[in-house]
Amino acid sequence: MSKTIDYYHFLISPWSYFAIKQFNELREKHDLVVNYKPIDVMQTFDNMGGLPPAKRHPSRQQFRMQELKRWAKYLNVPINFTPAHFPTNQAMAAKMVYAAGGATGEQLAADFSDAVLRACWAEEKDIADEATLVELANACGLEGATMLEQAKEEQYAQQLQQMTDEAHGRQVFGSPTYVIDDELFWGQDRIDFLARYLQS
């Protein structure tokens, strides 16, 4: 029987971007059902005790950059450490993930979520731009223009808020966070622990 993971994440998180390959391999190996649940960035910082990178102490900003460079080299993942469109508004992209069925484990929604992260961190694209989102959705096999219009419906704004509230209620405070059996695994550097949990 397949296990189900709720994957809470920001669509502008470099750490979620770094996790794509590792997590997808784990998903395939264990035949996981994964509910992709992007959540609101600023509400998460405000409600769960964090600060966006630009507001952190300079020492923490410097360390963050060092860690990004270490992980990019270790994982051999291409990244622009100072992307042209960061930070940017991820709300429409998140609503499109939900419109594609992300919260119910639809694979094309997962592909679109990954594509949005790559667009931000490796392709110098603005994921707040609607034309860009349509292009990314089309490339994933979705009807981009249709999905964009669906995502503008109030139900998807409500779903984004509901999933953000759900995440906070489950003590999710950062991205990426994987939740299975009420166990939380936060960060791309905890995927090994998630793998061990799945094997146990």
Describe the SSE topology:
Elements: E1 4-9, H1 14-29, E2 33-38, H2 41-48, H3 58-75, H4 91-99, H5 107-121, H6 130-139, H7 144-151, H8 154-169, E3 177-180, E4 183-186, H9 191-199
Parallel strand pairs: 1-2
Antiparallel strand pairs: 1-3, 3-4
Helix pairs in contact: 1-5, 4-5, 4-7, 4-8, 6-7
Description:
The protein is built from 9 helices and 4 strands, in the order E-H-E-H-H-H-H-H-H-H-E-E-H. By secondary structure, it is α+β, with helices and mostly antiparallel strands. It has a single domain (4-199), classed as Glutaredoxin. Strands 2-1-3-4 form a 4-stranded mixed β-sheet. Helix 1 packs antiparallel against helix 5 (107-121) and helix 4 (91-99) runs antiparallel to helix 5. The protein is globular. The two termini are 15 Å apart.
Structural class: alpha+beta
Name the beta content range.
Answer: 5-15%
H/I helix tally: 9
| CATH architecture assignment | 3-Layer(aba) Sandwich
Into which percent range does the helicity of residues fall?
40-55%
Largest sheet: 4 strands, mixed
Order of helices and strands: EHEHHHHHHHEEH
Q: Give the neighbour order of strands across the main sheet.
A: 2-1-3-4
